[in-house]
Amino acid sequence: MSENQNMNRAKFYQLAMFPMNNGATNVYYVLILSFIATFGNRVLGLGMAFASFMITGMRVFDAVTDPIIGALMDKTDGKFGKFRPFMVIGNLIMAVSVILLYMVTPLIPETMMWLRYVLFVGLYAVWVIGYTFQTSVTRSAQPVLTNDPKQRPLFTVFNTIGSLAGMGLIQVLGMLIASDGIAGDYNATWFNIMTPIGIVVSILLTIVAIIGIWEKDQTKYFGMGNKQENLKIREYVQIIKANKPLQRLMVAGGGCKLALSIATNLTVLCMIYGCMTQFGVITNEAGELASQNRYDTLNALMMVLGYVFSAPFFALTVRTSQKFGQKKSLMTYVAVALACYVGVLALLLIWKPETTALNLIIFGQEGGLAINLYTIAFILFFGVGYGAYYATADMPIPMVADCADYETYRSGKFIPGIMGTLFSLVDKLVSSLSATVVAVVITLTVGLKDLPTKSTPYVDGMNWAVIICFCVIPMLAWIATLWAMKGYELDGKRIKEIQAVNAARKAYIADGHTLEEAMQTYKTVEDVQA
Fold first, then answer.
1. Model confidence at 4, in pLDDT bands (50, 70, 90)?
2. pTM of the shown model
3. Is residue 362 within 8 Å of 371, Cβ to Cβ?
4. How many Å separate Cα 242 from the centre of its chain?
5. CB-based burial of residue 443 (10 Å sphere; 0-12 exposed, 13-18 middle, 19+ buried)?
6. Looking at the DSSP assignment, which residues form a beta bridge with residue 282?
7. Do residues 400 and 420 make contact, with C-beta atoms less than 8 angstroms apart?
């Protein structure tokens, strides 16, 4: 049997449009996970510790709901397909809960603070359920979209485009609306403006994604193309124990997400680009150190530079994945990020607020260009490192499809829902630590009662908080990723063998044989070749 026989390939528009589902959920990833602590603390007046730790608790709840919804998804196979119902229902739940959370709860008087606490927790929990409904589809639908090893790496590129359409757009708009001429900060006005914008963007991206998966969301693309019995809980447990590649991918994916979520946390960015660097440390006429708070401009500039540096890495990761497999690509560029962040760490260690030569300076007092060697070195190390890890941050998503195909090869079971959500469970449990980790680090190193914002003045210890959150923790996460991927068996060659065996079994079943007969007839790629 040739390599191309019975290959399930996606059309270009399907490859390009379905990843917008991730963009749709990433809109809420920014609105909720990036700003919910600030909203609870600054707008509702909740305690910083409560707001931060509640986010972690709800993120754990989010992770726990994943396998439940994944199992429900595996049992679903109706006229509207397996995945589309979860996309529609999830987006609707998120829209309603966010409107109530961000636009209604601030109307509750401060004299009824207990009700603010109750609604904050309750509405956040409802949002979590909707988020899990829709975000689970991104990973779970991968096996039906395409099983071509050369097409799957392309998902990372289109997924990033979708993320930029969702996450990137909301981040940029958020910074603009938080400028002094509009909302002035991340206050109640900011949330009232951003909430309807985010909902509209998410709905539009969801519609695009539904069109992309429409044709593939039918039984003939599910595993061996046959109806299968529902699994029991104990069978799911056995699958987790037996699927070693999935276990390692969970570690790698969790490491990548932890690095990204902490390094891009709003509070961390406010400290490094607002409290510490002030975007142009200058001296006044008396020769004393003065500062100009241009956080909005600096943060936006560094974000754009990060995207610019990411572009060539996306091309490199796709090329490497298609030629050598996604394992090789992930390990290579995570190692590049790790090496570059050694340089970023060194620069932050020698940073001194009172020394102009050891601070980020791009514009002088009069607005002219005043870049120094420290800034050039920071841009290069940060840019290349950010480009490398941003290009690999979502690479584990299409790799989940490889693990799902491996499970079909190993046991004959097609369970993309539980496979995707099991990976998501660990992903969310790890990333749920981000808000709590940042709050704990700030408490221990800085001792502030409230989370720093762009207007918070620099205090001693902030540089160590940035060093730990911006460099040390992400570097440790990348080391864990490299360790996990070292023993990951699904390289390019192995994936091709699995695809050949699965295709042969599917064709055998289509000829009237049972799954058990197909499993016995085609056990290895040698049986297919024979």
1. low
2. 0.73
3. yes
4. 26
5. middle
6. 290
7. yes
